[in-house]
Structure formats: structure tokens, C-alpha cells
Amino acid sequence: MDDPTPRVNFEIMQRYHGRKVILCCQINQVDNGQVRVVTPDKGEVTVVGGTAPYEGRFAEVVGTVINPNTVQEIEHTNLSDNFSLDMYNELVKLSHKDAYIGMFYA
Amino acid sequence: MATATLTPGDVLRIKEKHDFANGVVLRVSGLQEVNGRKHRCILSDGSANIRGILASQFADLVGSGELSNGCLVKIKTFVTNSVGNEDVLLVTDLTVAAPGNGSQPMEADIALTCHNATPEASSKLAEGKTAGLGHWAKENSTPMLSPPTDFKANKTPGQSGPTGRTPMSLTPMVTPLSISMEKTSLTPPSLRISDRKSYHKIAQLHPYDSNWCIKAKLERKAPLRSMNIRGSDVKILTVDLLDDTGQMVQGTFWRGAAERFAEQMVEGKVYVIHKFKVKPADKKYSSVKADYQIDFTDSTDVSEAADQDTSAMNAAVEITPIDLLPRRVGARAPVDVMGVVLALGSLGTVKRKADSSELPRRDVTLGDMSCKSVVVTLWGDNAHAFAAQLEGQEGKAVLQVTHVRVTDFNGCSVSSLTKSVVTLNPAGHAATQLLTWYSTADMSPDRFTPVGQDLPGTRGISNGNGAVPSRERFFTLKDVAGVTPESLLDDKANFQAVTACVAMINSEQQMYYLANPENGRKVVDQGGGQYAEADGRVVERPEHRYVLSVKLADHTGEAVVQLFNKEAEAVVGLKADELAALKDAGSGFAAALRAAQWRPWSVVVMSKAREYNGERRVRHTAHKVDTLDWVTEGQRLIALIGKYH
């Protein structure tokens, strides 16, 4: 396990171009092989390459950032509806703050 | 026999395990008896030292005075050992080559103290002194006193004029000895004067050595206190010492030494203190900002410094920026503040509750470059300080107050203490910098925000409804458990909102009582299906009401909290009647209790102090219990986290 896989939102994703990230998001639309999602900070991203079905409103996608709007999926987990995207966004922001980043992504 | 002489370099050879065919000649100093009849000493070759242990067979030599400090010994057989990082020379065969005489002792301060009544004790002190001093070679020596001959000590080294200096004649500055030393003098004799030149700095102190020597001003001498330790009363004297680096440290004398020095030490005088233990400071009890504190032992030696110059010994002033003051709220160690004078309160007085005496007080508002202001309350003399000069100086003068306490009054404010020092326009870069900033940035008093304003848990002048707990602060069960009978004033209740789970419900307790459904008052079985309240009123169908004690737990700790009907119903999920039915039925009861465990709740805990059999205890009750809405809770936590940076 070399580099930690950070949890990101749209804005933070840009810093991890080409890297593996975790994105929790709200599902907007599922097209064939492509899923359009809303990131915690209300950005729009397309997730490509997923095979397993997406169920429910929320999902956690682990994938590689291939361009500012697209994530190549490695795997994903369906989340229940009892999920607050705003709270999650706060977590993502806090975990990347200078003061706390050491706790999360050392 | 060839005249014995010292050969510099011998000690090194000893350490390198060279062989000495003819033995090695070394000079003895710092003789000290240790358990059994062995003696510790320092052995020198004229330039280097090594610690030595003389086997018990030489105890007689020491006792007779033949082997004494300053004498030369020819050591024929010995063994070297390494203890820690020190080498020790164990002597098994030696002869005294030359008696201690006239040669320049390398150690200073052989002067015996006379403030110890017992001759033995004072001779021990002398030994202690010299032993420690082996550390520093080439100390300049002080004139020496030999003890008056009516000393009956049998362990005094060098009883017969060891260092050969003519006693008595070279002692202009030493305190007069009372000749009959066995009697304690009527007035406490003053401490002897020390002329040593090399000291440690307070900043160098650490617990891993005990051979310290510092020269410091007695900044403060606390009144002699008595503490009960394991049944006996022990006297304690706490002192604050300040050295010429501006560093302050706290130290404690015990028992006899405490009483002695309480009388003899004078605040403001400079003392040389030798040999003491250093330990990490106990922040709970120390009012001095330091990492370590000192424990003076029975072998600690205290003497007045010959050089009483205290010009350099001013407590280093460490200014805390006003915006960082909230972090120090409640800390025991005082801080120093400095700021531009923004507003001056008028001189007022406060009546002391205790004796109705009037205490002058004055508030001054100071602001600094953080654009925050704080109100400093000056008491007593400090309230009068600079009263005239401060008039009209808003925005034009800088005030510095040292040793102030930070409280959470009005969020955050600062109060002076007896040892606070108020300085108007202190010399130094910082003050001028403040004034320049103030004028160039075109600041005015109203551009400062009071530092306590947006603080969580603001305790203001008017805090009306005590039942509303401060949700602005993050409380945990550790805080609840930390509420002591002392922290609760009289019978006031303390409310804390925490998030916790029910860890355990004791099934053996009485969980409910029968009550009148209308008013909840307890009813007693009259027999025959009739129930009556205390005043006789009959109740047809009583209901069970909860009075349930549960153990709450969170990640910081646990607390036993009592829940009444409404709250317990929420936690158990069953009405008391239903639970009672389950209990009577015999099955399902335990399961119901288990089901109530380990769910998170938002609980407002009310803590009150009560008297139980003469003992004051704190009782916790659940004032309110809510299901945890983690989203709202998360938002609250985020807001609290935001306040940290």
C-alpha cells in the first residue's frame, strides 16, 4: 500500500489527476457503462467502466481520475439512502485541511 | 619511600585499564560515608577525577582522620567498574601517602553551616558539599572554617584541620558562628554566604541528574503549609526561584528544611542552592510556567549568594497575543499580556464577602495586533497604578501586565493577581511596534473585537435560564464525570449536553414505582387493590413510572445517570407498565433490557450536588433524551471544529 487513496469531491479531485481516489456521490443517470453523478460539492462527473449495477441513490466509487470530469471506475459500493452528501462534503474538506490531513492521508 | 606525587593523566590510564606496578597516587576529596562502612570519594590525579569507593577496611583510617580530604593515597590494588556512563574506582588496598595539608583543594565551600543544630548533620552537609563539587575542577576556594572543637562528630572528615588553611582568620564574610553549636540559636542564624562561580541555568535542569547548583533570586516564598501525608503532618514550603536568564522554577522544601528556610529565606535575596532533585512539573499544582519543578532534599544545601545582584533576574515576560488568550482560560499558570490602551474603566471598589473590606478595582481594555481586545481587571494597588498617567491615553499608551489569570468571564477576560506587575509603555521593541502599528493602521478602539465575544460557552453577566445547556461546547461523559461536589456551587445544577450510549442497565435495581397517573406521585399499596398517595388520596389504577439508573458511556468515559419516566421510556422503548409486565411474566425482561443497550442518544445531563450521610456527592440525571439525529449532530460538531483554527 504505497499512496493512500484520498476521499475527494469535485474540487479536490483536480489535484489527484491520474491517481486513484474515492468518490462518494449521488447517482443522476445510469447509461450503458457510463454513470453521471453529482459530487459532494455539487460538481458533475461521469464514471466510466463500471460493470456491477448501480442501485439506489448513492454510491461510493473507487477509481482513477482520467480527466477533470471523468473517473475510470475500479470498483464501487452501493450506499443506502441514509446518507448526507453535505455532511460527507464537510468531512472531505476537513480531511484535506492542513491541520488534519496528517490524520487521514499520511 | 619516594615522595608521593600526583601524575596528571593517571586517571585516564586507570580508565583505560592500565596496570600500575607500583600503585597509583591520587588525591582524595569529597569523602562521604555510604552504607555499611564504605566511603565514597573523588580521586584526582591533579587534572582529572574519578569517583572512588573505599572499602570498609579503610573506614577506620577515615575515622581517625588519617585518611581525609586533601590527602594523597597510594592505591596498590583496585578495580574499575562502569556504572552507567561513569567510571568508579573500587579501592581494595591503599596507604596514605601524604596527609591532607596545605595543598590547594580544588573544591570550594568547605565552610560548615551552623544553622543545623546537630553537629552530625552539619558535617554531613559539608561532606555533601564537597562531594558534589568534585564535578568542577579548579573552583576557587572560599575561606574555610574548621568546626569548633566541641564537635563530637565521629564522621567529620578533616576534623583535624584538613585543608590546612588557618581557620577563622580568613572569614570576613562568613556568618558569625555561635560557639556552642549544640544549642539552636535564639534568632534564626542567617544562611552562610557562598562564593561559587559556576552555576547551572534553570533552563538546563532535568530529572536525570541530581548534582545541580543554581544561583537564583527568591522571587516568592509561599506561606509555610502543612499537609497530611499518611497520617503525619508534613510541613511544606513552596518557593519560586528566578535566575539571571529570566527563567522561573518552583521548588518545594519538606519537613524540617521547610520550617528552617521558611524563617531564614528572604524574598528578593539571591541564593545558591546545591543538590536537589528535579522532576516534571505537576501542572495541577504549579503556578509557574515551567517544564520541571524542584524537590529539595535533606542533602540540599542553601546559602546566600555573595553576589546579590538581581538586575538580570527579572522574570522573562512572555506575552500571549490577545487572540490566543481563550486557549488559556482556566489554566493555572498565569500569562503576560500587553496591548494598546483602548479604554479605561473608572476606579471602583468591590466589597469583599469575607470581611467586608473594600478592594480597589479598575478595568482597562487592551488591544493588540490581532485586532482583538481584552478587558484586564486590575486589583488593589495595581488599580491605582499609573492612574494619573493613564488618563486620556487611549490609543497612545501601551500597558503590560504580567502574571494575570485568564477567565471565561464574558467569554474571555483577564484578571490581575498579587504578583502581577503593571508597566506603562514598557521598554523594548514590542511595545513601540504596537504603538506604531496602531497609529499607522489608523486603528481606533471600536475597530477591535472583544476576544470573548464569539467564544463558545460564554459565561456572561446575565445567564438567566440555567436549564439551557450550552450546546456551543463539546461535552463528553468525561466532563460529566469530572463534575465534583466542589465544582458545583451550593445546589446549583450543571447542564451538559452529550452524545452517549446506554452501556448497561442494572437489572437488580428497582426500576419503577407505582404512581398516580394524573400527577406522577407515588402511591402505596393499601391492600385489597387500593392504592393511596402520601396524603391519603385513593388512586384506582396506578401506573408504573420509571426511575431508572443507567450507565452511559461514550468514547471518553462513563457516567451513571438517572432517567425518569419520559426519558426512560425513550431509552427502553417500552412504557414502564409494559416492562413491569415482562418482568412479572419472567421472560423477555432481560431481552428488553439488552435491546436498550448500545444505541446512541443525545442526552442533556443535569448534575447536582447532594448530601448523603454527611457526604457531598454529585448526582446525574437525564434532563432530556433525544434520538440522535446524526446529521444535525454532525453539523454541530463541524461548527465546533471550525472554532479550533
TrEMBL record, chain A:
Q: What is this protein called?
A: Replication protein A 14 kDa subunit
Q: Which organism is it from?
A: Volvox africanus
Q: Which Pfam families match?
A: Rep_fac-A_3
Matching entries from InterPro entries are given as: NA-bd_OB-fold, Rfa2
- The coiled-coil segments of this chain are none
**Where is it located?**
Nucleus
Q: What is the superkingdom listed in this entry's lineage?
A: Eukaryota
Taxonomy of the source species: Eukaryota, Viridiplantae, Chlorophyta, core chlorophytes, Chlorophyceae
Give the family this protein belongs to, as stated in its UniProt record: Belongs to the replication factor A protein 3 family.
Q: Which UniProt keywords apply?
A: Nucleus
From TrEMBL, chain B:
Enumerate the spans annotated as Replication protein A OB domain. Answer: 332-424
Bias (Polar residues): 156-169
| Record keywords | DNA-binding, Metal-binding, Zinc, Zinc-finger
Q: Tell me where on the tree of life, at the top rank, the source sits.
A: Eukaryota
Instruction: Indicate whether Transcription regulation appears among the record's keywords.
Output: no
Q: Which InterPro entries match?
A: Euk_RPA1_DBD_C (IPR047192), NA-bd_OB-fold (IPR012340), Rep_factor-A_C (IPR013955), Rep_factor-A_N (IPR007199), REPA_OB_2 (IPR031657), RFA1B/D_OB_1st (IPR003871)
Specify the Replication factor-A protein 1 N-terminal domain's residue ranges: 6-96
Disordered: where is this region?
136-169
Is-annotated flag, keyword Metal-binding?
yes
The Replication factor A C-terminal domain covers 496-637
Domain spans labelled Replication protein A 70 kDa DNA-binding subunit B/D first OB fold: 199-304
What does the similarity note say?
Belongs to the replication factor A protein 1 family.
Name of the protein in question: Replication protein A subunit
